[in-house]
């Protein structure tokens, strides 16, 4: 790169000659040596200038950011897990939103204690995009109060570190077995049941007075199984009813006890309610589109059993579109869709609806791109 820069500037001397050792130095060689030294000096000067320019550009971008720009990406400056039972699965999510006008890159996430851990859902966040840093707490190897720090390091658009203090209290008198309700993948419209043992050691008269569920389709039943010698045990049964909506499940049940200081014990519920049909991708990226030129793309529709697609409709009305609908029933259907973007340049977003025979629910997907002049 340096040699090219010197050549472009017409700087001589990048390839100088050396006098043979022990031989007389002539006048021509002396001029060549001087030219070589001048050339090397100019090449070095050009390199320093380019590096200074690059450093200055990066420094200018950094100085345009507020001093606390990285902290502004988080909704909270500290986080308290609260009081949790020993052996329970404790997971929390901290929202991070890019409020800047440039992309942000998460270089690393770490904690200062083995009792907690953090992991980003995404490394890159575009302007206005939201994501989460998932926190986990180890309640099996650690007990009682635990304090640590979550440290999130950014390297784009500039280097910065965010330190968020974390605190938790892992009580030793209440144990959950297993540590959470793991539903796995549940077909939509079906019922699934899970059980958990709640083990207490302490007061003879300790009791759970209520179980609070955040969703009507998460129903619970509590049954006392033991009360003797300072030990109180319960069996908690969770039932997911057919009314559960499709999508990921991440909810928290609350055990309300008669403890005066810490009456609430959280219980995590995780899983996925799988719909009978899915469309992939949910958002089709079309990239650059030329006005008036057809663009063809493919979406995949999957079902738990063979099905037939009746029709595909479009919500918008910009441009034209055609679709090839397979005639045979199958568990996997490929839709070939061809669109003709409108003549007006700009953002192009269309929403499509797929009707499956015998199903009342419409399947939705979007196609997005940018229309440019040909």
How many individual β-strands?
A: 23
The proportion of strand residues reads over 45%
According to CATH, the homologous superfamily of the largest domain is Immunoglobulins
Assign a percent range to the helix content: 10-25%
What string gives the helices and strands in order? HHEEEEEEEEEEEEEEEEEEEEEEE
CATH class of the largest domain: Mainly Beta
The figure for the number of domains is 4
Supply the number of helical segments.
2
Distance between the termini: 36 Å
Instruction: Label the overall shape.
Output: flat
Average residue pLDDT: 83
Structural class by sheet pairing and helices: mainly beta
- Report the major sheet: 8 strands, mixed
Task: Please mark out the parts with pLDDT under 50 across 5 or more consecutive residues, or reply none.
Answer: 1-27, 51-60
CATH topology of the largest domain: Immunoglobulin-like
Quickly give the CATH architecture of the largest domain. Answer: Sandwich
Radius of gyration: 32 Å
Describe this structure in words.
With 374 residues, this protein is mainly beta. It folds into four domains: 2-63; 71-172, Immunoglobulin-like (Sandwich); 180-274, Immunoglobulins (Immunoglobulin-like), CATH 2.60.40.10; 277-372, Sandwich (Immunoglobulin-like), CATH 2.60.40.10. Helix content is 12%, strand content 54%. Strands 1, 3, 5, 7, 8, 10, 12 and 13 form an eight-stranded mixed sheet that branches. A four-stranded mixed sheet has the order 9-15-14-11, with no helix packed on it. A hairpin with a 5-residue loop joins strand 20 and strand 21. Helix 1 (2-9) packs across helix 2 (27-63). It is flat, with a radius of gyration of 32 Å. The chain starts with a helix and ends with a strand. Mean pLDDT is 83; it is low at 1-27 and 51-60.
